């Protein structure tokens, strides 16, 4: 993979400019351009291409801080339009999570029609969650390459198609197939949350409020299923539990198609460059230069990006595991409702749906409680913009006070259900657990959106993978665990795990700076931001697996576009600035084997 020449400003397939940008750091050193040009010609000659026949001229690449295109980006949209987009993204996220839980209300009817046990029927819920975990990871990087809008449209459409298969399934095998592929086709919060990073600059006070809003959709969509599903289960055939998901999904997809435009900066820049070339300007978008052929190795690299983040970025790993185990505990806890309340207090179908109301109340309380916490963080950043603690770890501050609610809630639930006291006690415990669930998800997502900016989809994909995979794997074993261990012992087991998770919250908060230092890509993005006074970093050119990072800086179809072998050269000298150092770090971090560009 070619590297960026720090003195010329020329990037292999990502960013080069002969016109000064508003950022003074991006003005090219013309002497260095002339000094290094023979080396480029030698490289072309060594590959059988004469520099005289196909001279390589630096092409102007549009950047998001260029004054002539900045007003086209989603950052510059009116506030009313941004929040209009967010309302529809809210509905998209609700529909995705609605699909995970409404299925449970069809289990009884499904087991009767297909003559299977209810425990077997629950594997349809588990299959969706496990596949959903991988869907979050697989869709996320494509939204960074081709745009949020097309990815969400494809995802919603395919989910609806497989939802129809489940609705009219002739047997349980068809249900499992439809649920598995439906989960795999679900893009999830990794893409919807990344839209926030497209719409708001990370220093914009509304950035965190928008995050709070979409997080509410994610957790709220999960409890909408049981609330809606109870009357459907009582009055209608089980297939309506599946059909309602499809109807809701189609309505949301149409709203998104009609009202939401593309927000991803690089995609907007590519389109703007095409329009400018039609008017005679020789400019290119960040993803336009180079060969356009299908490169399956590049596809594999793009798909692997979220998994690499999860495995090699300590921030992503720590926060994702914290959020994932928390969500898995709560899913197991919720699954116990169908075992505890009917046997302990004789709850019927409608009364069972009411057991989820305390979770909703907990989410509302958590939402309101985060408003002053966000204002506090905004004030700290304004007072000292260079304070790294305020930029990152302080986003976890309110979690320090809400995290203990998870073990405390489970402890109260264990005693109130095990000692046969009034059911209201268990409802109070459920409310506490709801507050903590919301707080953990909000705090971890807020941190990762700030740390990974334009690549937030890949970063938050790890969070989604951990939450959905662990919940999917553990959901089917919840009721057998409660049946075998008993209500008190099973809940106390969850309590012990919750205590360990709570310790993890404090560990992450106090050792956050160390985790960030070891997170190579997050540090590279932070270095990149320093070179953009306006704070807009829409891509890192040398990121392996990105289209910008794999394009040559010559137009498609030219002989000079043939990818040369990398020529040996001296190590970077002291003249290389921090931007070049950051980009080299990114290249080392996500390097693919030689021959990737063939």
From TrEMBL:
Main location: membrane
Keyword DNA-binding: no
Listed Polar residues bias regions: 1-28, 44-57
Biased composition (Low complexity): 555-564
Pfam family, one: MFS_1
Transmembrane portions of the chain: 83-103, 123-143, 150-170, 176-197, 209-230, 242-260, 315-341, 347-374, 395-415, 421-443, 488-511
Localization terms from the record: Membrane
Example of a GO cellular component annotation carried by this entry: plasma membrane
Single Gene Ontology MF annotation: transmembrane transporter activity
Spans annotated as Disordered: 1-60, 543-579
Major facilitator superfamily (MFS) profile domain mapped to chain residues: 85-516
Keywords: Membrane, Transmembrane, Transmembrane helix
Protein known as: Putative mfs multidrug protein
């Amino acid at each position: 993979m070619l590297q960026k020449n720090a003195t010329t400003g020329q990037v292999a397939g990502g960013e080069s400019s002969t016109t000064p940008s508003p950022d003074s750091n991006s003005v090219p050193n013309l002497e260095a351009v002339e000094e290094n040009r023979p080396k480029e010609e030698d490289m072309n000659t060594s590959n059988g291409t004469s520099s005289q026949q196909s001279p390589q001229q630096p092409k102007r690449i549009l950047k998001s801080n260029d004054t002539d295109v900045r007003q086209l980006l989603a950052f510059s949209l009116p506030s009313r339009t941004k929040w209009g987009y967010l309302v529809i993204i809210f509905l998209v996220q609700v529909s995705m999570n609605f699909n995970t839980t409404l299925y449970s209300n069809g289990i009884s009817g499904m087991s009767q029609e297909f003559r299977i046990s209810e425990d077997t029927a629950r594997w349809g819920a588990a299959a969706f969650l496990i596949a959903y975990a991988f869907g979050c990871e697989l869709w996320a990087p494509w939204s960074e390459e081709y745009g949020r809008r097309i990815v969400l449209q494809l995802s919603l459409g395919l989910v609806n198609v497989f939802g129809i298969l489940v609705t009219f399934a002739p047997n349980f095998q068809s249900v499992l197939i439809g649920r598995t592929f439906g989960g795999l086709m679900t893009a999830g919060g990794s893409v919807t949350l990344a839209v926030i990073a497209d719409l708001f600059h990370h220093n914009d006070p509304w950035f965190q409020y928008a995050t709070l809003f979409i997080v509410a959709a994610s957790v709220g969509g999960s409890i909408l299923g049981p609330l809606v599903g109870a009357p459907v289960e009582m009055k209608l055939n089980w297939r309506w539990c599946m059909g309602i998901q499809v109807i809701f999904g189609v309505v949301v997809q149409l709203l998104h198609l009609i009202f939401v435009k593309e927000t991803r900066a690089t995609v907007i820049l590519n389109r703007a460059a095409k329009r400018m070339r039609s008017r005679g300007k020789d400019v290119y978008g960040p993803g336009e230069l180079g060969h356009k052929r299908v490169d399956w190795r590049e596809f594999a690299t793009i798909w692997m990006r979220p998994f690499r983040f999860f495995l090699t970025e300590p921030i992503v790993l720590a926060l994702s595991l914290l959020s994932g185990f928390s969500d898995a505990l709560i899913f197991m806890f919720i699954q116990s409702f169908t075992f505890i309340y009917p046997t302990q207090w004789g709850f019927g179908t409608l009364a069972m749906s009411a057991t989820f109301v305390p979770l909703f109340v907990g989410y509302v309380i958590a939402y309101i409680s985060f408003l002053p916490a966000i204002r506090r963080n905004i004030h700290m950043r304004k007072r000292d913009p260079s304070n790294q603690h305020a930029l990152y770890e302080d986003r976890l501050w309110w979690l320090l006070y809400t995290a203990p609610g998870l073990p405390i809630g489970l402890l109260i639930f264990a005693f109130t259900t095990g000692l046969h006291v009034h059911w209201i006690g268990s409802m109070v415990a459920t409310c506490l657990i709801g507050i903590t669930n919301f707080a953990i998800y909000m705090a971890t997502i807020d941190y990762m959106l700030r740390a990974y900016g334009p690549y937030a989809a890949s970063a938050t994909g790890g969070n989604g993978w951990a939450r959905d995979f662990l919940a999917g794997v553990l959901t089917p074993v919840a009721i057998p665990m409660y049946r075998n261990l008993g209500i008190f012992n099973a809940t106390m087991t969850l309590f012990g795990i919750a205590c360990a998770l709570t310790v993890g919250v404090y560990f992450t908060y106090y050792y956050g700076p160390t985790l960030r230092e070891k997170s190579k890509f997050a540090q590279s993005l932070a270095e990149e931001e320093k070179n953009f006074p306006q704070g807009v970093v829409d891509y890192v050119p040398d990121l392996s697996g990105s289209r910008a990072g794999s394009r040559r800086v010559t137009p498609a179809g030219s002989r000079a576009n043939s990818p040369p072998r990398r020529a040996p050269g001296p190590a970077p000298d002291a003249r290389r600035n921090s931007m070049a150092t950051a980009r080299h770090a990114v290249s080392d971090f996500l390097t693919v084997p030689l021959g990737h560009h063939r």
